[in-house]
Design goal:
Elements (H helix, E strand, L loop, with lengths): L1 H57 L8 E9 L11 E8 L9 E10 L5 E10 L7 E5 L11 E8 L5 E7 L25
Length: 196
């Protein structure tokens, strides 16, 4: 009887020990798998960080300063006896920095290609007041004679010693030809009939 009880207890002990060994073996196997995956992730992360550093070295640093955006060209009202078509050039000046940009000077250049394919340039100097950090300022010029009516022009706005530059193409509207109004002819006076 004692042998049977001992055999049963020994069998149970062996079963429990075997189950524990299997559980510990499974735990270590999963742990080894997790460690391997973790090592792979760390290696991949280090590789990505190295690629990012290499890319940052290849990309040149962005210049810091005022930027010109969105040039617009609009016909201006004619004034006085000068009937040369004139246009107002408008644009935005942006200060993306954290410092106030002092007063700036710049240039507006209008390039016109005439019928013979010969380029003609016109230049105007501009002055911009200081711009606080983060500000976007709308600037408009006085009326300018950019080119002949109906011609295609390219207008460039650049600020000296600043990274900002903008360019746009524009077709100047043609001037409508108006037919001269015929002058009214004066009728010859009709002679009064003779009095009898």
């Amino acid at each position: 009887m004692t042998k049977k009880i001992f055999a049963v207890i020994s069998g149970l002990f062996l079963l429990v020990s075997l189950a524990m060994l299997l559980a510990v073996n499974s735990f270590f196997r999963e742990n080894a798998k997790l460690l391997s995956e973790h090592k792979k992730l760390v290696t991949a992360k280090e590789g990505l960080e190295k690629e990012v550093i290499d890319l940052k070295k290849k990309i040149p640093p962005q210049p810091v300063g005022a930027i010109v955006e969105k040039i617009t060209i609009k016909p201006a009202a004619q004034a006085g006896t000068d009937q040369t078509p004139r246009y107002t050039v408008g644009f935005w000046v942006v200060n993306p920095t954290e410092k106030t940009i002092p007063p700036m000077q710049g240039t507006i250049v209008a390039q016109q290609i005439d019928a013979g394919g010969v380029p003609r340039w016109s230049f105007w100097a501009i002055q911009i007041a200081s711009i606080p950090p983060g500000e976007r300022r709308n600037v408009a010029t006085n009326p300018l004679a950019l080119g002949a009516p109906g011609s295609n022009i390219e207008v460039t706005v650049s600020l000296w010693n600043q990274p900002g530059i903008a360019k746009t193409g524009y077709q100047l509207p043609a001037v409508e030809k108006t037919e001269p109004v015929p002058e009214a002819k004066e009728k010859a006076p009709v002679a009064a009939p003779p009095v009898l």
